[in-house]
Amino acid sequence: MLDIEQRMFYLMLSATEGQKFATSMGYATPSEDVQELEIMDVLSRWMMVSKSGLFDEITEAAHWFVEFLEKTDKINSPPDDFVNALTVFAIALINKMLENGLVGLIVSEETLEELEGIQEYE
């Protein structure tokens, strides 16, 4: 399943360039019919993100994050540091969207039990 998720990630980077991105990352180029379907799928997902207000939230957070990277001189960080920076950005962004009621979070029973255990410990 990870390969499918990763390929979709590359496709989602751009409706027009996604196929090229996926191919450059080692994925086989599908038939033209499949490419057309994938492009339409990506376009519909982008439209959903845009119409829901998520795009605006993400764009605003991205601008804030770039300001942070510039002011803390982290924009030219080594790859591992940049991965960490993107990870914390994603967490902050998800929290922003949760707080604004734009997305919901489904948590597994196991995670809920772990969280309850932590709260009881505190």
Please outline the helices and strands.
Blueprint: H1 2-12, H2 18-24, H3 32-51, H4 54-71, H5 79-99, H6 109-121
Helix pairs in contact: 1-2, 4-5
Structure explained in plain terms:
The chain is mainly alpha-helical. It has two domains: 1-51, no CATH class; 53-122, no CATH class. The protein is 74% helix and 0% strand. The protein has six helices and no strands. It is globular and about 55 Å long. The chain starts with a helix and ends with a helix.
Q: Based on the structure, what is the oligomeric state of the protein chains?
A: single chain
Global outline: globular
Indicate the mean pLDDT: 88
Note the main sheet: none
Give keywords.
122 residues; mainly alpha; 6 helices
In short:
The protein is an all-alpha fold and 122 residues long. Helices cover 74% and strands 0% of the residues.
